[in-house]
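Changelog-adjacent note: as of this version, every example in the card shows the full chain rather than a window. The one below runs 296 residues end to end.
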Amino acid sequence: CGVDAMELLQVGDVNTAGPPHEGPLHQQSTDGAMWDTVMFASALIDSGIGKDHPEYARVLKIAHVVLDYQRTPRRYPSPGIPSGDYRGLAGVSRESDWAVKVKAPPAGWAFELADHRYPDVDTTSEAIHFLRRVKFDNMKDEVMRRAAIMIALDWIAAMQNADGSWGTFNKDNTSPVIDALPFNDMGVLTDARWPDTTGRQVEILARLDPEKYRRRIRRGVKWLMKTQREDGSWYGRWNSCYTFGTMTAIRGLVASGVEREHPAIRKAVRWYENIQIEDGSFGEDHAAYKARGFVE
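Full-length structure tokens:
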């Protein structure tokens, strides 16, 4: 029941000595296990654990888990993908309201392992980023890996909003009406359009198949250019906040072919130079969400 689910996501105060459930508890909204897993796995590869490394079997094991948690259609009519059963064992197994406007088979990954209805484009792009750097010796596994990437890219493309942007969990979910509800303490209740999410999707499409997704990429770039703030930054919905959004927007623009000397890129770089802390680091307060501007 719902109460049991809430208890599963209760965690102890990390500043309290002793076992996790001794001392104050707070409610965790999600465990984010798939997101953490693919980010960790990419970090292993970045650290030098490649195909000839003795620990590479660990990377392949993670890749199998990631593939198992993708929901893919039983028969996918796309050139280059052999017909067959590529259904993930434990992944997104049921369509939900996102499928009302998305006329493509579900082929993404969800933020957490227990979520069987709501894949999101951010976790999906990070899963692709990891899987594209893995190679199986076993031909069946390798075919599954390639197929998983191809259909996930198609799903990301289909999730693009009409204006060229991306939300995270839904398509064209942009009505402001629900945000006016008096009990809304989150600032926004719809999954509208986000520069950080858009930058990430532009990047993955541009890096893996720029010709096939050329129109999608061009529309995403146009939207990012239009939504750059006057100070040179971009808003980031899913991390703190302008520092993160600007980073993902720049990565997407550069991956799409925008020159590093383009005025929008230089303007963003100048913004980073202006907010850099004296010790060389960068930081941002969560208050930036409410302030609607950078807060150190």
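Structural remarks: The longest helix spans residues 139-158.
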